[in-house]
Amino acid sequence: MINIKEVTVYSENNRIEAKRSVGGFPTSLWETYSAFANTMGGVILLGVDEGKDKSFKTVKLPDPEMLTRTLREGIAGGEVSVDILREDSVRIEQIGPHRIVVIEIPRAPRELRPVYIGKDPYGGSYRRNGDGDYKCSREEVDAMLRDRSCDWDYEPEELDITALDRDSVREFCTLAGSADLCSLGVLTGNGNPTAAGLLMLGKFDVIRSKFPAITLTCTDSIAGKSVSDGNLFTFYRAAAALLSASYRAEDVKAAICEAVINALIHAEYRFDSRGNGGFCGVRIERGGGMLLVTNSGCPLPGSEAALAAGIREERNPGIARMFRAIGATGGEGTGLASIIAVWKRRGYAKPCLIELFSPDKTMLILPLKGKGACLPCDDSLCRAAVIDYITSKIKATVDELSTDLGIPRERLDAILCVMVEESILVLRGDCYILKP
Questions:
Q1: DSSP helix/strand/coil, 239
Q2: Under CATH, to which class is 4-147 assigned?
Q3: Could you write out the DSSP letters of every residue in 336-357?
Q4: What residues form DSSP beta bridges with 93?
Q5: CA–CA separation, 398 vs 179, rounded Å?
Q6: 3-state helix, strand, coil in the chain (%, to 5)
Q7: What 8-state DSSP symbol labels residue 202?
Q8: What contacts 24+ positions apart, CB below 8 Å, involve 157-161?
Q9: What residue spans of 223-356 are helical by DSSP H?
Q10: What span, in angstroms and rounded, lies between the C-alpha atoms of 240 and 256?
Q11: Where are the domains positioned within the chain?
Q12: Contact 36, 105 (CB under 8 A)
C-alpha cells in the first residue's frame, strides 16, 4: 500500500494514520482499526509523528514489541468485533535510527462488516473520511449488516402474485424460455413474490410500497430523451435501448447494456427516503463525451477489487440470476471486466470506478471518446476521480493522473492547482497527496 522505507514522504490521509505512541499503546487506535476495516483499508504507523509541515518523521519508541503484543492481546480479548489481520499485517520496521510499528488493516469482507469496538455495532462502528475517523450513523450500520447476507429470496409481507406486472412477466418468461417462476427465483414455494422478483417484475406502485425511496432514471442529453422508474426489467430494456441506439458496434452496445445491468444488480434499494443523502436506486446520464452510471451503495469488495478481472460480488444475486436467465448478462465475474475489455479494444479512455461514502454510492464513468478525452463531464467529477485515485494509490504524479483518468493535462493542471489552494491536496516533490 505504501513504501515503508520512504515513510517520510507521506502524510496522514484516508488510508494512512500516524500515531506517536511514545507514551504507550494509543487507545484511539481501535477507532482507526474499525474505520479502515469498514472503509477502504489503511496503514497505522506507531512511532511516527507529524511535523508542522505535515510531513512524517520517526521517533524513538521505548518498546515496539510491547505495542504489537498489546494490539494482539486486545484483539483476542474482544476490544474489536473481529480479527481481520494476517500474521504479517503487524510488524516492526527499522527506519533510519528508529524502529516503528506498521499495522496494515485490510478492508473487511462484507460478511464481517461492520467491524466495531466492543459489543455494540451501533455504538462502536467507525468509518474514514478526509477529516479522519467518524462514528457511523445507525443507517450506515444497518446497510453494512444487510450486506452480510445479501438475501433477496425472502418474501415481502402481504403480497401475492397480483403484485407482479402481467406484461413484464409474459415478456420475461418468453426471453427466459421458461414459465416456472419459482425456479427462476421470482416466486417462493408459496407462490408469492420474492423481494428480488418484486423488484424485477413488480408493479411500480407495489414496489414503491415496499421500497419507498427507490428511483430509477436514465437521461440521454445527446438524444434529448429520458426514461424513469418502472420495475428493473422494464427500466433496463428502456434504458439499454435508449443508450445503445447511437452505436453500430455490437460489442459497444453489449457493454453499455452490461453497465446498466451492473448498476441494477449492485444497487442498495433499502435506504429510506431520508437516508443516504436521499439517493436510493440507479441514475444514468449520457452527455459531455461520457456515460455516468451511478448506483446507491458501495461495491461490496471495494472499487479496486471490483475493477480487477474476475472479481464479482453481487449485492443482489437473485436479481443477477434473473438477468442471466434471459441472457442479458454474462456469467458471474464478467461484468466490469468485459466492459473494460471492450473500451480498451475500441480505443476509448480508460473507465473509472469511483466509490464514495456517506452517502454511499458507486459511479462508473465510461468515456465515449478516445484516449486524452476528458473523462468526467464537469470539474466536480474530475475532482472526485482525482480524490478516489489518490486515496487508492496514496500519491500520484500529474502524468499518472492524466493517463489513468483520461483527463487532458492542461485541464488537469488547473484542477489540481485549485485543489491545492483549497487545501484538498498537497504537492510533495512531483507527487500529489491528500492533505490531512
A1: helix
A2: alpha beta
A3: HHHHHHHHHHTTBPPPEEEEET
A4: 100
A5: 55
A6: 40, 20, 40
A7: B
A8: 159/192, 159/193, 159/198, 159/206, 159/210, 160/191, 160/192, 160/193, 161/187, 161/191, 161/192, 161/193
A9: 232-244, 250-266, 303-307, 317-325, 335-345
A10: 7
A11: 4-147, 211-377, 381-436
A12: yes
For the domain covering 381-436, report its CATH number. Answer: 1.10.10.10
Architecture of the 211-377 domain: 2-Layer Sandwich (3.30)
Three-class DSSP category at 401:
helix
**What pLDDT, on a 0 to 100 scale, did the predictor assign at position 310?**
46
Q: Which three cell numbers stand for residue 342?
A: 471492450
Query: In this predicted structure, what is the pLDDT of residue 44?
Result: 94
Task: Give whole-number Cα distances, 316 to 42, 157, 164, 209, in Å.
Answer: 28, 19, 19, 19
Q: What is the pLDDT of residue 372?
A: 45
Instruction: Calculate the CA dihedral of residues 183, 186, 192, 198 and round it to 10 degrees.
Output: 170
Single out the residue of 264, 261, 341, 276 nearest to residue 309, CA to CA.
Answer: 341
Q: What residues in the chain have per-residue pLDDT under 70? A: 1-13, 53-54, 130-131, 273-277, 302-312, 330-334, 370-380, 392, 436
* pTM, entire model: 0.81
**pLDDT confidence of residue 9:** 55
- Cα angle value 93/97/102 (rounded, 5°): 20
